[in-house]
Amino acid sequence: MTGLLADSVCKEHITGTHHPERPERFDSALNAVKDLDLARIEPRVANEDEIALCHPREYIRLVEREVMTGFHELSTGDTVICPRSLDAALRATGGILNAVDAVAGRKMQNAFCIVRPPGHHATPTRGMGFCVFNSIAIAARYAQQKHGIGRVLIADWDVHHGNGTQDIFYQDGTVFFFSTHQHPWYPGTGPPDEIGEGKGTGMTMNCPFPAGSGRKEILGAFQERLLTAAEKLKPELALISAGFDSRVDDPLGNFLLTDADFVDLTRVMLEIADKHAQGRLVSVLEGGYSLTGLASGVRAHVQALQ
């Protein structure tokens, strides 16, 4: 069965009037799938040792201090915070780790996590792009540490490049990061020649596309490049940074993906998980800023997971 994580504490991360990453996103995503037959995943708080799998404790202290002091925005970048932002970020990450436990422990085949704030822009020492902690990167490290999983694949179809995830694993030989994203666009990273360094050489694959790209380019990259890479990697766990701002008419992106395209992207990921990872797949919500588009894309994605 497909699992669903949806922790309402994530709504308490208040970003202010007219901010695109707003609490209503949580309700839109959840309402889109509430009638589906999904197994609920219990939420929890991630502890400091778990966050420290990808972020130094000095950065964790900075986030704690700036949230408690009442900063409106993290000093590291463009991430709005409020008094409950740390709680929301810790609950988002902890819930995702519970999803990893459920999937790795064979209690569920796969899972989708409705969380906010998102995470894929957070580097080890910098919150940016609406992100505080890089929850999907922490999930990969947690799976390796707790469940003995060796090779992990992270695929990111958000319209924005997951620069934080790339940074965390850029010199790592065990986590493969694959990204399709609009370029040039925020945050300006992710050209095709960024492929990793040292032990991580060849473990980063970037597929930047211009505004107006859609099914042909993005699904084509997943079908042609990612499937080939997965054959070599043979991942033991597949993770998705599922950003629905790559959907047509999103206010923060200029890609043209449709709900049918998200179904087919999901099927590619299921094919990889089924062939190499005993079906183990966890999908994590990243972007998606049209409430109607987000709901529609999430529903198509989760129905494809079932």
* Head-to-tail CA distance between termini: 7 Å
- Identify the strand order in the major beta sheet: 2-1-3-8-7-4-5-6
Largest sheet: 8 strands, parallel
Q: Radius of gyration, rounded?
A: 17 Å
Structural class: alpha/beta
User: What is the global morphology?
Assistant: globular
How many helices does DSSP assign?
9
Count of DSSP E strands?
Answer: 8
Q: Which residue ranges are poorly predicted, with pLDDT under 50 across at least 5 consecutive positions?
A: none
Helical residue percent band: 25-40%
Strand content: 5-15%
Compressed to H and E, one letter per element, the order equals: EHEHHHEHEHEEHEHEH
**Average of per-residue pLDDT values:** 98
Q: In brief, what are we looking at here?
A:
By secondary structure, the protein is of the alpha/beta class. The protein has helices spanning 24-33, 48-51, 57-69, 85-104, 135-147, 163-169, 215-233, 259-276, 291-305, and strands spanning 2-6, 39-40, 110-114, 152-156, 175-182, 204-209, 237-242, 281-285.
Give a quick set of tags describing it.
306 residues; 8-stranded parallel beta sheet; globular; 8 strands; 14% strand; single chain; alpha/beta
Description:
The chain is built from nine helices and eight strands. It is globular. The longest helix is centred in the N-terminal third of the chain and has 20 residues. The chain has an eight-stranded parallel sheet, with helices on both faces. By secondary structure, it is of the alpha/beta class.
